[in-house]
């Protein structure tokens, strides 16, 4: 059995350069069971680059990525997903013309690693439908199962993305700007929902919306010029002089 103190997700000394540009400089961070860990930093700081290395789309020059203590650095994105890494994206990956249920079934199908040509029969497959319907219920979209995805509000689409990720039974979520494009009421309701999700699977979240970050995060890591300059609780980060100078734009 995995030691309960082993982080669910971890990067150890990750380095990544694009020619002379050091986009990730010796980044060590972890995600613990039950927490929301927010990754913040100015534009171009290297947040997406780091997330891509965690999810498997980009290979670090050195350093390693671990899930439940297992080194997954050499594994491609799909394998990490099957091991329980649930992702939601800055730009929606949903099929807009399909119904909500179809998108969720497609997610469940992907979770089983089956080829997409089986999609039609997948819709009639009871276990895939069950898992899709359960995920929709978990995010509160069960009454919209037959709605065309394009007709959902932005906030509901985010919830559907989480439902799709939930069909994998994720052990950890990696979310890229979940609040992007949501108005004040949309981000408030998504904040409430994510708050309730952390017990199911911890969340590593890149987010620019500081209200959401301060409301949700158990810990915050601040990335500036490819380096983590601080990791701590909301109170610690708010009080951190270097963070205030470098990121929050305040006089320390
Ligand atoms: N494939 C690439 N080739 C070359 N340079 C890249 C590549 N991907 C990212 N970069 C550079 O690496 C740096 C970090 O970019 P990254 O997108 O990770 O930052 P970010 O913190 O996610 O920014 P934002 O908040 O604007 O999304 C930037 O200077 C960017 O131009």
UniProtKB/TrEMBL annotation:
Signal peptide (residue range): none
Coiled coil: none
GO cellular component labels: plasma membrane
Keyword Transport attached: yes
GO function terms (MF aspect): ATP binding; ATP hydrolysis activity
Keywords annotated in UniProt: ATP-binding, Nucleotide-binding, Transport
SUPFAM superfamilies cross-referenced by the UniProt entry: P-loop containing nucleoside triphosphate hydrolases (SSF52540)
Domain ABC transporter: 9-250
Any Pfam family hit: BCA_ABC_TP_C
SMART domains membership: AAA
CDD domains per record: ABC_Mj1267_LivG_branched
Protein name: ABC transporter ATP-binding protein
Species this protein is from: Neptunicoccus cionae
